[in-house]
Amino acid sequence: MAQQRVIVGSRSGLHARPAVLVAEAAARQPVPVSIGRPGGPVLNAASTLALMTLGAKAGDEVVLSAEGDEGEAAVAAVAALVEADLDDPGQPSRPDKPEQPSHA
Amino acid sequence: MPERLTGYPASPGAVTGPAARLGEPPSLPDTKPAVTDPAAELARARDALATVAEELQRRAEGKPKDVADVLFTQSVMAKDPGLDQAVQAAISAGTPAPWAIREELAGYQDALRAAGGYLAERVADLDDIGDRALAVLLDAPMPGLPDPGHPYVLVAGDLSPADTATLDPAKVLAIVTERGGPTSHTVILARSLGLPAIVACPAAKSIVDGQVLAVDAVAGTVTVDPSADEIARLQAGEQARVAALSTTSGPGRTLDGHPVKLLLNVGAEGAGFEPVAAVDAEGVGLFRTEFLFLDAETAPGVEEQEAVYRRLFEGFAGRPVVVRTLDAGADKPLKFVAFDDEPNPALGVRGYRTATKFPELLGAQLTAIARAAAATGAQVQVMAPMVATAVEARRFVTAAHEHGIASAGVMIEVPAAALRARELLAVSDFVSIGTNDLSQYTFAADRMLGALGELLDPWQPALLQLVALVAHAGAETGKPVGICGEAAADPVLAQVFAGMGVTSLSMAPPAVAAVRAGLRTRTLAECRDAAERVLTATTPEQARAVLG
């Protein structure tokens, strides 16, 4: 079984939007990918709801795992997203910020 | 004989159109049927959730990015594979589809509540998914705002903040609610959009979709299935009302020229500050700054705030702008500071009281306001919310002066502050009365509670007496006394306030024309006479009757 410990990179944690992106990536893998906190229950990483209930904040550690030959690649692909800052302002979703034109 | 329903006229105007009811959340039937065909039951559950996901995705189309993001995330949750598995297991164990969906969602909701913070807010999203799926399964009306494909009169028990946030003013002709008081969300929203609204109209319960309604939100009546004559009369009255509004322009003054400044209540303004700056008004009497803070993950920096303030100040160059400092607390929580859990948030550490707990937030805000003011040359004033004593007022005013802001005042929202208005004015440059909270605290009546709407009527003599007390203290000390609550948007009450000696009225932009027209119908002497006589009234109705 492939397993990898990853630090959550999104500054607001695995909340709605980052959770959707991570779950989508997990669903795209040829094998089921699991996620959990170290020592905690193992959940389906393709489930946005499961990811959100982890309550993982930026800097928290989570464990990804998958079975089979393709497990390692699958875990690596999902890990890349968990580590990334998916709240990056390059993808604007914060209309209350002055750099956004909505209040200009 | 058409049926005529009465309610509280909350936002003026008159219109005729077909009714469409807000969908109420469906409830589970009392009896749980046995599942005879689990495969078919699972198919029903999956179809319902898929329908909900599609509908949410459809609603996301063409919406601003922030709204679309929320709806899209919600649609993903409806299709969630984990939820699907759980529902499948529950149905296999003999639970019918509606119960299976509701119970499995409840499991996720518990986990989200336990995670706390931002995630706990998603609990309501799951409620909404459950309500919608149940509506599909039970063949009940879809909950939420209706979308009949034509403009309609929105009829509801009451509107939630979520309903009002997604309301499209191009589709809604008027609002009629069974509950809700004079200071409820519905009223604030309707006034800010300039939509006619009637609240506290219990008989509206009987209205069904498609019935034609003649809504007269000046008189506070709804006529069901009106005659052609009635429709024509209503239209003529509305045309006359609108025409009368457009005949006046410029600064607020009474018939004989006594000035009462007409100012604007301004907030986030999704369309930018240009539209409000273009309104025929004398400045901003209340700039609510909460929007900069409430959704922010981290405290907004001085530069970030300054940039927003500058845009507003530039739009109002040469006119006064009153900035209210951050009004947050357990009732309006922030993500980046921890407020203690309070059993009574409305009576807790909120408004200016938070400044003693988080002084750096107020310091940064005053710095940003001072810099933006210096850069734009606007007549910028600041005021603090929820001040109760002269000591608090002096502390705030001193801090503002030290930051280089020449004019600083406080809001009068607490009866203690109204009673000691003279002492507060002695240490402040001005005061502004927030009638919504002043009502709430004077009558010990939650302003969001429709059942107490009568107590929150701005014509309540006790509220008017407190306003008169503050206005009198203003006259004695020679300092300005403004009003920036919903009461300021009442064109008749405006005359009473003018008579009391109030020097400015601040309101939602669509209300300005009517208040200006109302002020110009009477002389100052007549206003003063009315101001004295309303205080002899025993009920709001008697107070209103003073000015006919």
TrEMBL record, chain A:
This is Phosphocarrier protein HPr. Its main location: cytoplasm. CDD domains: PTS-HPr_like. One of its GO terms (biological process) is phosphoenolpyruvate-dependent sugar phosphotransferase system. Residues 84-104 are annotated as: Disordered. Keywords: Cytoplasm, Phosphotransferase system. It is found in: Cytoplasm.
Automatic annotation (TrEMBL), chain B:
GO terms for cellular component: cytoplasm. Residues 251-521 form the PEP-utilising enzyme C-terminal domain. This is Phosphoenolpyruvate-protein phosphotransferase. The keyword Metal-binding applies. Its EC number is 2.7.3.9. The active site is at residues 185, 484. Residues 1-35 are annotated as: Disordered. Residues 151-220 form the PEP-utilising enzyme mobile domain. Phosphoenolpyruvate binds at residues 288, 324, 436-437, 447. General (non sugar-specific) component of the phosphoenolpyruvate-dependent sugar phosphotransferase system (sugar PTS). This major carbohydrate active-transport system catalyzes the phosphorylation of incoming sugar substrates concomitantly with their translocation across the cell membrane. Enzyme I transfers the phosphoryl group from phosphoenolpyruvate (PEP) to the phosphoryl carrier protein (HPr). Mg(2+) binds at residues 413, 437. Keywords: Cytoplasm, Kinase, Magnesium, Metal-binding, Phosphotransferase system, Pyruvate, Sugar transport, Transferase, Transport. The lineage of its organism: Bacteria, Bacillati, Actinomycetota, Actinomycetes, Pseudonocardiales. Its cofactor is Mg(2+). It is an enzyme of class 2 (transferase). GO terms for biological process: phosphoenolpyruvate-dependent sugar phosphotransferase system. Its main location: cytoplasm.
